[in-house]
Batch of 4 targets.
Target 1
Amino acid sequence: MIFKNRFRLVLQKSQETLRQHFAAKAAETQLQQNTLGSLCRRQPVSVTPETPLRQALENMDEMRVGSILVIESSGRLAGILTRYDLLKRVVLSEIDLSVPISKVMTSNLKTLQADDTVEAAANLMMQASIRHVPVLQNNQVVGLISERDLFTFQRFSVGNIGAEIRAAHTLDGLVVAAGHIRQYARNLLSQGVTGHRLTGLVSYLNDALTDQLIKITAPKYNIDLNQVCWLALGSEGREEQTIATDQDNALIVPDETSDDAMRQYLAFAREVNEGLDACGYPLCKGNVMASNPDYCRRQREWIKRCADWIDAGSPQDLLESSIFFDFRPISGNAALAEPMQKYVADAAEKTPRFIALLATNAMKWKVPLTMFGGIDSEKIGGKPAIDVKLHGTALITDFARIYALAKGITERNTKTRLEAVAAALGYDEARAADWVTTFEFLQTLRLKAQMDDDALGGNPNAVALSTLSKVDKVILKAAFNVMQTMQHRLRLDYVR
């Protein structure tokens, strides 16, 4: 009990350290790497110095803006009038509305350049006690940044990003929304949101983006989405997508689909896959995508393919296809996937050979501990490091998937699978908590690595041991010990 309490305190300290790291990285990304020019999407409302005050106010009312710039015919910025100026300078001073706006405007303005940062604008507004900053490029006004703009810039949420996705009717709009999803994920990390909750929110938004892209693309190919079902596989199927992730997907089409129509479906899937790639979800290197004929099949062909994998699949077949068994419908007619879901749930549980092959494959990946209990690192990017996906989270997702299939558990998410598996094996809640905590900690380390600007050796899942605190290393060893016991149970149950 003393050890467990100490472990819990150490884990909390590690999580706070990671939260502080995420906060610093999120602030740097959000405030320093975004220029004011990127926020200036339209020319500000402006008038000349000679414009009558009444006309300027009517322009503000018509355009529904709270400020108006005063720009000379030469293009030189002369001043600004905001709604905050009106009470003192116009109403209380009883100014005649026919006077030129130059009589009441604020001149000698503080300005910034288009390549200045959002952080610079925030600092200037605070130090000068102003609410608006004109943005210049080559001495010409290109925009006007307000306090509200800065607030909106930082105010990403599931609701407003979801609305942005639904309102997007072009690929370009979805590309912008995809960038906001990644920024939102970084914001959540800075707030200490990690693991299961974060990856679930990211997957929810990625689902929405994929669904909208499919809806935009389908009419180009005369495809009725009630006749097809787009499946997410792998981490998206498990609702566990992290910041750096490629795409794994498949397509179910009607049994009566002709060969010509199948070519049309493949072309449609190719455009969707390329669209997702443009949105920042790279094409799968293993070609596990709906544009591959192996992953675009008629309903009856999919059931036969699953039967082949379960009844007679080779170890290599199952190694390559194991992520398929995390499939989840995310667009189109979900009912098309139900017969396959039922078949897999029933057949896997009744086929010991299939489960044994999956378990044997899972044993190929060793927990990175030395025989003396130290962390067994490898050189990545020239540094001793751990691939936290390949030698960490992937081993746990394999464990959870294999037992879920063996026990007829229909959950897809690793956390809920682990909890259900622990119950099925007769373990108490403490054992399930050990498994889940281990998985969450490793997922958090992955997210930390993916926030860094330069992936170690080009691997977004690599964590250099030199970047870990003593606390993190203690928890990492404890996590690997938990994983060893999980693999040992799997070996005893299914590997002969």
Note: Residues 158-343 form a domain with the Beta Polymerase; domain 2 fold (CATH 3.30.460.10).
Target 2
Amino acid sequence: MKIKQCLSVALPLLAALAAGGCASGFTKVAPMPPAEFQRLGPTAGEACGSLGVLATGYYAIPMGLNSRVENAYIDALNKVPGATALVDVTISEDWFWWLIGTARCVKVSGEAIK
């Protein structure tokens, strides 16, 4: 009977620890804009990364996933000459399967400022 009691406490605790390991803090996408700035117009940028190299349920090797938001932000800035930041930023994500993995694409859009 003691084993059942121990398992009834240990299993939920292990599940909570495992779920907590999947959490992360907030990530700053864009710097705070200065008090005064000039609006340059709308822009958008996109960047992709992949998970792959195993069977469908076990895609585990990340390829370019961690930097895709930053790269999409930089892509959006580079499309407007003189832009130093974005305001009114929105992020959307899309994904699709390819032969040995999945591609995860992020689109960052907003208004460029300087």
Note: The chain has a mean pLDDT of 81.
Target 3
Amino acid sequence: MGHETKEVQGKLMKGLLDLVILQFLNAKPMHGYQIISSIRKNFGVYFGPSTIYPLLNQLAEKGYIKSQWDLGNERPRKVYELTKEGKHLLSFTENSLNHICRKISNIGLRENVAKEIGILQRPIVPSIKRAQ
């Protein structure tokens, strides 16, 4: 069960990686290595530079994040931050994901309610047949 759980979590994380990155950048500007470390620390999944940096470039090209060089440290780093468009995308994506999760959870709920209603909608008093 543990291997399957980790595999499912990895697949979900890969599909939601842009949302996760946007959420981290919504909290504070970060450089790439901070993003990689935060993902690993918070989710227990490792996505390396060959996954994260192309995704950061795509998000920047679409205008959802912007970057600038931080030259104040020993080693220059490109720091990414969320744009106004990125905040809108993040909000829309969160709402969409919540909507999908509600729909998924309601599938089982609707079936259970339908069964209960079906039981409750049976006539309490059996129908009386006409005398022939």
Note: Residues 13 and 45 are 8 Å apart (CA to CA).
Target 4
Amino acid sequence: MKNRPLLVVHSPDGRGLRQVSINRQGVGKVWSLRELRLLLRRLGYPRDLNIEDRTHIRWEGGNSSRWPDRPWSRRTAASLMVIGSLTSASVLFKIGVTDALGALTYTGRIEGSLFLIAAILETVTAIAVFDHWGKRRLTYSGAIILVGVTISLLVSLLLLSVQIYGGEYTHYLWLWLALLIWSAWALRRLEPHHILKEITHPKSLAVGAVVSAFFVASNFAYTQVYIPYASPVQARVIAKLGTPSMNQKRTILYLPVELHYQNSGKVGFTLLGSQYSVYGRTAKFVERPNRLTEWKDDMEKEPMSDLYRHTEVQGRNLISAGEFFRAGNSLDPDQEFVEKKIVEFPAGAEYDSIEVVASATAIRTDRGDLDDVDYSIPYYSWDTASAGRKHLYDAPGWVAQPGDEYIAHHAQIHYGSEILNMTRKPRYVTYWRVIRKEFSGANPENENDFTEPYNALTISELHEEAREPSTSDYDELYDRYGLQETYSPWLRESLPALLKAAGR
């Protein structure tokens, strides 16, 4: 027993690491002869100790020349593990911070918080790599890495699935594929069955990971599919007439018009554009009853027109038109906006009735968010600094004729989830309010004279506004952004009744 060496260098383990013990107590692990000499010096052995002297050191499983460790291979693998973990953490952090602080729904913010927690776990994974690919002084460093790699695998599968389902290419596609390949490689390199043997409750760990992944996926589906389906936009536009009045000379009629924009649903919406129009209808009484021929003529002029037995509608003169709700503003659930207008026209105008109609176009706030500062800035087709307001720009051919003037609003739409922002191409909304160059404001007898201001809308990729949207494009917009076009019922009041109410 007295001749037994006090210091023993044991056989290399599966990674080439050799345990060093003194009197059967481990004092360290070394990868190479150089690390062994450093360990011995820290233990107080002389610098010139002869490691080949069997009276001082006993070698098991090979002499001092057996060091199966491949440092470059080990360090390369560790570096790839760290790079993959930090890349995954960056993706999760970007999604988490954006949604936790700015998601358009409460559940979206919860989802963002979960991604932030996952980002922290991925960061801890990168730190644990140094121990697991090193001396493994921490018991659960392998389990931490296994959890982190599993999270990365599930997240990359989720993002890749959303990308494929959307059918759109973004540069992030290569990132999802790279993370998926890295996760598969990392799982194989980790050998999960060995790590799970070292964990006290491996089933609990697996169940926790699956439940967390299921919660994130189901929450994403809930916010992006179920909520929009179960909570449709419920907007109402209503036009009302107030009590009219006249000037002192009793030559001008002042007609108050109230425009109500209501949100009676459970989801907010952002206005893209609005317009109201006030018409003076001209008609004459005919003693001979109208026949089918006259009714056909009326329906050709306007398919939704009313049919009269003893009235011949000659046309409508546009008295007033404009916006009534600021583009880019939002309306929350159970909120109502009221705009009051005063419409003026000659009291002696030969109208038989006054008609008012209004419309508004909006998108759901939980499906898309506009930069209201950018969208509220109008773009003019004419030179606003010149005295003659010289025409400068033409709208796309499907929007207006060359020379027509317009005011446009333009801004990028940000999706309600950062996942969608990363897996969908950027989209921009453009809303034109057009005034034709031959504008006259009246169309008494010519059914082809549509000279009143009108609106046009497109949501497209950048610089693709010139492409006219098809019916399928609009169907996609209605589905993707909850695009909602709302019209008020036609409001009509006879001019004699208005004059009587004004005291004439």
Note: Residues 71-230 form a domain with the de novo design (two linked rop proteins) fold (CATH 1.20.1440).
